[in-house]
Specification:
Number of helices: 3
Number of strands: 0
Strand content: under 5%
Distance between the termini: 13 Å
Order of helices and strands: HHH
Radius of gyration: 15 Å
Length: 73
């Protein structure tokens, strides 16, 4: 059980989760004005893409290897 808590002690994983939550809220949110809606959606997708690129970068350097615990099962 302790092995499942270990990934959440890495600050990089916590940052990726926080960015993913913000991106998800922005992408799924609604606005009344179409211009605001487009801006919010664009910012949400930009944050999601940044989160993806950051995870790829850290994954290549081996800084978020704790996530491999979940792949084994």
């Amino acid at each position: 059980m302790k092995q499942y808590i270990k990934p959440f002690l890495n600050w990089r994983i916590n940052l990726l989760m926080a960015l993913a939550i913000v991106a998800l809220v922005l992408i799924l949110g609604e606005c009344e004005k179409i211009s605001t809606l487009l801006i919010v959606k664009a910012v949400g997708f930009a944050i999601a893409y940044g989160c993806y690129r950051l995870s790829q970068h850290w994954g290549k350097k081996g800084l978020i290897n704790e996530l491999n615990i979940f792949d084994a099962q």
